[in-house]
Amino acid sequence: MQSEVRVSSQEPIDHISENIYGHFAEHLGRCIYGGLWVGDDDRVETEDGIRMDTVSLLRGLNMPVLRWPGGCFADDYHWEDGVGPREDRPRRRNLWWTQGRENVPEESNEFGTDEFLRLCQLLDTDPYIAVNVGSSTPQEALDWIEYCNSGGDTELADRRRENGQEEPYGVKYWGIGNENWGCGGRFAPDEYADEYRRFANYFNGFDKLMNEDSTEFIACGHLTDDWNKVFFDSLNGGMEFGPGSFLGMGSPFNLMDHFSVHRYYQAGGDTDFTDEQYYKIFARAQKVGGDIDRAAETISEYVPEGEIGIIVDEWGVWHPEARSDNGLEQENTVRDALTTAGVLDLIHARADVVSMANIAQLVNVLQCLVQTDEEDAWRTPTYHVFDLYENHVGQTALETSVDTEQREIDGEDHDVPMVSASASEGDGELFVTASNRRHDEAELLTVDVGSSAYSVSSATVLFEGNDIREYSTKENAESFEASNLAVTDEGDGTITFEAPPASVVGLTLTE
């Protein structure tokens, strides 16, 4: 079969934010305990209780941002339970999730704010903290910001110093709740608007008068247009009363920097799926693009263009095998990794409105990038897609069109293109990624970059020879690594190559 990818270097979309390659870690299953944190367990190398084999693998991704502590966990979490001497921290319920692989919904609070921010320091990544709206108050959230970010001579700043961190952490990203239409309180959109306005009002005051570093605030959105519109209507309406210009709070965008949406998808099981279900999951993953487009359209009705970015701060494959009673663990296959490439292509095409994305989740849970057992850590196929796509970071996304067969899927809103692709340009380099979704046939691909000034400097391929149902284990993890791909550079801006079945290709071209 044949397909063509055409790159329009004269049609730039926007800068691709590095935060699009963000991640998410929740107090759930073996993500934190066993995956990132082992405390005094000496079976693996640790630093301040953090397992360094996991950190070493994650450092290879140059992670830009990490969201914590949830997820649903966030809106039942009280941050003061997780600071100070660990032996004095209370053991609490985990209202939503099992810890480990056993059905024990309890939280030890061994891993709290200082441990999380120490992890971010080890990873050289920006922290993104989601505060408790559903079962807490603005005062508790404001105290948390003060603990993390105040350089003053206050009780909370002094407490942070007593706990070992002299200088403010400078946490930039603060989410005001999580899925507050669901597990975060089951708020109606107007109710959440009231809560958001109340929390953001106090955050904004702290940011203006006491904060040494700028902070950015994130509202929780929904997948339905009606919910989001009612939220913005209510938020906007509530700000019409009182002095609109007081403290600069005259419109919603003065209290909000980003607006988030979530999207999970599945079709069949993690490894037990039919050929039809194999393609169906790509149709469902394409909904991410529509989610972003609808959110952007709603935002444009209320605030100036570009003032509020869209964050997809939970996304990925959620198979039926991942249940609360097993810590949401599932096998991580080549099929899952191919969906990742397609979603990242969709996000690149919307680089002008997407300010961050956070795949769920970082370690052991759902579509994780790293898996661990008691003594080892290894990469998943999805890890390798992130690693390959990192060349897009910081470049300018370019309009990319694909002429390929479309597979119609019964009952789905989207057809499935057999090839997905995206391209970016910067500093004399052009990078193209393309996926062949056919699981049983190679695809002869022609990439036309529209300029003879570029020539291929490297070409790599993921998953050549891997089966679509193959999943990562400690024993086979190296089999998913990239290998070199033979291509033909015609010298006129066109490159041809054969993309193996179910593979992802990366082309680097230089001037």
Automatic annotation (TrEMBL):
GO terms for molecular function: alpha-L-arabinofuranosidase activity. Keywords: Carbohydrate metabolism, Glycosidase, Hydrolase. Residues 313-503 form the Alpha-L-arabinofuranosidase C-terminal domain. Its EC number is 3.2.1.55. It catalyses: Hydrolysis of terminal non-reducing alpha-L-arabinofuranoside residues in alpha-L-arabinosides. It comes from the Archaea. The keyword Hydrolase applies. One of its GO terms (biological process) is L-arabinose metabolic process. Belongs to the glycosyl hydrolase 51 family. This is non-reducing end alpha-L-arabinofuranosidase. It comes from Haloferax gibbonsii (strain ATCC 33959 / DSM 4427 / JCM 8863 / NBRC 102184 / NCIMB 2188 / Ma 2.38).
